[in-house]
Amino acid sequence: MPPLWNESRLTAKLGIDYPVIQGPLGGLSSQKLTAAVSNFGGLGSCGAHSLAPEQIKDVIAEIRSLTSKPFAMNLWVSMEDEGARTSDEAAFNRALATLAAHLDALGAPRPKYKPYSPLRFEDQARALLDAKVPVFSFIVGIPPREILDECRTKGIVTIGGATTPDDAAALNDAGVDAIVASGFEAGGHRGSFLRGAEDSLTGTFSLVPQIVDVVDVPVIAAGGIGDARGVIAALALGAEGVQMGTVFLACEESGASLVHRQALRGKKARHTALTKGFTGRLARGIHNRLLEEVEPGRNGDSTLSVATKTRQKPLDSSRGGGSSGPSASVGGAKRQSFGLHRHNGFLALIGRGSFRNRGAHQSMECSPP
Q1: Measured between alpha carbons, how far is 248 from 45 in angstroms, rounded to an integer?
Q2: What's the confidence (pLDDT) of residue 70?
Q3: Cα separation of 244 and 290, whole Å?
């Protein structure tokens, strides 16, 4: 019998039930959200790139007090560009002026200027290593070999972010355990490192198969995925998991303000003026909720299937993971439940309000927004 849709090298390596990774959401990270996603069988992530080492230690301790499941801490390998040390309050105010009207319209507070304070990646990484976090994810570069070697020694799973096939090949050669294929649709920033951001703008569903073809480790699709169709498409193209960020901001456990969460849930969430103001482009919102894509009885049964078979490589026993042999495609399991049903699917909680633990079985029945 072929594996279920949620059984892959990635889920085996991470020790999770579902191939869903919460985007780190740097600046909007929440220990409660990280723990909630992990408790429901995904991989919660916390963006720590703006935190000092002592703060990182405190965040890790709080997450561990909320979950015994695997979780990820995320850092930026490179924290600066050419203007980081010379930018001043006047430059900050000029940038803020383009967003002020959108913030005012939402009733959101305006951010305040803080002088630049550099943080050393190596010091931040040391905090993660000393705490032996389950998963260390990173973008904008590749950590020094010594750090990656120590991760392997301590059993810390490493996940690197790539925006081009060349990025991915470099990460693969460095020996990371999994690679996030971050498409142009990913909000907020580009995690590019071999090329400039303007030369690393391939869309997610074009980028995923290109990266799958050049690496040996599991690939995670990220960027613009916010409903069941996106998950299925990513798996059909060879990804073994998805990473979603914006869709989780609507949950009460996120670090987003109430007005932000309401904006994401609104009818115009697909194209929010605030998101365009921050990123310079329209980012996909969550108006098409994941649950609405799967309803028992639709198309005659309660399954989802895709005609395209997923290309999956045999497992490399030296990298860990589950049993060898190709994984089953989503389309090859037409009668297999996709695990997205109203009351028992992990993904049913997305876009349906807060996570709620209702006893030992952790029911996924969530309140509507």
Answers
A1: 11
A2: 98
A3: 12
What values do phi and psi take at 76, rounded to 5? Answer: -100, 125
Residue 233's contacts (CB-CB under 8 Å, 6 or more residues apart) are: 205, 306
Q: For each successive 10 residues of the chain (369 residues), what is the average pLDDT?
A: 84 96 84 94 94 95 97 89 77 90 87 84 96 96 96 97 95 98 82 74 92 97 89 95 89 80 66 40 38 33 29 38 34 32 39 34 32
Q: How far apart are the C-alpha atoms of 110 and 116, rounded to whole Å?
A: 18
Determine the residue type at 137.
Answer: S
**Adjacent-strand bridge partners of 74:** 47, 137
What is the pLDDT at residue 50?
A: 87
How many angstroms separate the CA atoms of 28 and 38, rounded? 17
| Domains of the chain in sequence order | 9-79+119-292 (3.20.20.70)
What's the pLDDT score for residue 258?
81
The pLDDT value given to residue 260: 76
Question: How far is the CA of 56 from the CAs of 47, 51, 73, 121, 248, in angstroms?
Answer: 10, 6, 9, 12, 22
Question: Is the Cα torsion angle 254, 37, 327, 161 positive or negative in sign?
Answer: positive
CB burial of residue 319 (10 Å; 0-12, 13-18, 19+): middle
Task: Give me 338's structure tokens.
Answer: 């996709």
pTM of the entire predicted model? 0.70
